[in-house]
Amino acid sequence: MAIDPRFKAFLEGIPVFGGLADGTLERIVDMLREEHFQPHQVVCREGETGTAMYIIGSGEVVLCRTGETGKQIRVVRMGRGDFFGETTLIEMQPRAATAVAEAVTTTYALSNKDLYRLYREDLQGYVMVIQNIARELSRRLGRANGRITEMAEETGDEHTQIGIRAPIKPGRHPLK
Prior knowledge:
Blueprint: H1 5-12, H2 22-31, E1 33-37, E2 42-44, E3 52-58, E4 61-66, E5 72-78, E6 83-84, E7 98-101, E8 105-111, H3 112-121, H4 123-155
Antiparallel strand pairs: 1-8, 2-7, 3-6, 3-8, 4-5, 4-7
Helix pairs in contact: 3-4
């Protein structure tokens, strides 16, 4: 089955699907589940076990995280062509944020079961998707590190650290 050229161009512009062969892209299109959300409707909740990533076809979604006081902090606003939840395709962890539709929104969901099916049917395509996800996560981590640095400078915090690792004892291999 041929993909609508406009939808194909849309998907090819999304980093997760960049560089895929037409056959792989067609497989993925067949796997995508279209979902519709009204303004203020929750797409997924922080802390839930995630099973799918979402690509925004139209509308807007805001990702929120719960702060230490319990208040919802708006972290990022996303629109057409943006995607979120991709880490659930790689690791079964609770969702890191709540996603809320800001407007009438259409998403396309790709589940971890679909990705496993891609692995079984099209190993080369699967590897490309995983590499694309890794590249995007790396970009996002770089932007987050930049923002942490900016915030530390703005507040005069010279000691901002995400975590402290225990020192390695001299003469001991770090992986043993």
